[in-house]
Design a protein that fits this description.
Blueprint: E1 2-6, H1 15-28, E2 33-37, H2 43-47, H3 56-62, E3 71-72, E4 78-80, H4 89-93, H5 102-109, E5 117-121, H6 128-136, E6 139-144, H7 148-167, E7 173-179, H8 187-199, H9 225-242
């Protein structure tokens, strides 16, 4: 199973929108997706229109079986949601033995052949919840706003990812930076893009997500217009990078996926 951590140290950069809309776009093309909401703000859970009684906090703090707390959603993805108990998760994890690997172990113990991919929504910080995501993940994707403050947070995140790769998860594969809320009319967007490409020329995604006021509030799977088209493109590009086969959206969901490797 591929595990993608969508990470960003700065809030408001399109992290949760990227998680839910990319996950929904992949599900619409036949990929069995699990979304794990690690953010106490529970934005991904809200955008997936879910109100779970149990979720990620039960897995991290009480050892609950992840597969037993998953909730199906109308967007076609399964959700391990953020409940109010997530508010104490960061502090409570500090007292847990092997605290950095709790989520990794929970995902490994779950029915891995049930999903082709897990997408992790992380808090806008570099605390234990985000570290858990990085230790559990096989890949990362970092949304970036076209602002220089967002660029500064990228450098700090890179240092954390490098440390996790060196000490805890050498298989972690950064997939690069996704520019979000891009307004082609603004000069700053071009300057930030150029700065990113200079800093990491191979790490900037060719697909960008254009500015769209509806993107932040749209329920997963119900985003239309520019941002909806762009997230569809991101999902297709992500599938290609990870080697996931996609069916056409018009094909029935009951058809088996060819060339899929759920156990990876």
């Amino acid at each position: 199973m591929h595990v993608l951590a969508v990470v960003a140290q700065k809030g408001g950069v399109g992290k949760t929108s990227t998680v839910v809309h990319v996950a929904a776009a992949l599900a619409a093309r036949g990929v069995r997706v699990l979304v794990v909401d690690l953010d106490p703000q529970a934005a991904a859970t809200a955008l997936l229109a879910a109100s779970p009684a149990r979720g990620t906090a039960d897995v991290l703090l009480d050892g609950a079986d992840l597969a037993e707390v998953v909730t199906p959603t109308e967007a076609g993805v399964d959700l391990c949601g953020a409940t109010p108990a997530m508010a104490r998760a960061e502090l409570a994890l500090a007292a847990v033995d092997g605290r950095e690997g709790v989520l990794r172990d929970a995902l490994a113990a779950a029915h891995r052949d049930r999903w082709h991919m897990a997408v992790l929504d992380t808090p806008p910080s570099l605390g234990l919840l985000t570290v858990n995501a990085l230790v559990a993940a096989t890949a990362t994707l970092t949304p970036v706003l076209p602002t220089f403050l967002s660029l500064l947070s990228v450098r700090q995140l890179e240092a954390t990812v490098a440390t996790v790769r060196q000490r805890l998860n050498p298989k972690l594969r950064p997939l690069g930076y996704l520019l979000c809320a891009v307004d082609a009319r603004e000069r700053l967007a071009a300057e930030v893009r150029e700065s990113l490409q200079t800093h990491a020329p191979r790490a900037v995604w060719p697909q960008e997500v254009r500015v769209d006021a509806k993107a932040k509030a749209a329920l997963a799977g119900k985003l239309h217009g520019r941002a909806g088209d762009d997230y569809e493109g991101v999902a297709v590009g992500l599938a290609r990078r990870l080697g996931l086969a996609l069916r056409r959206p018009s094909e029935p969901t009951s058809e088996p996926l060819s060339k899929q490797t759920p156990g990876q």
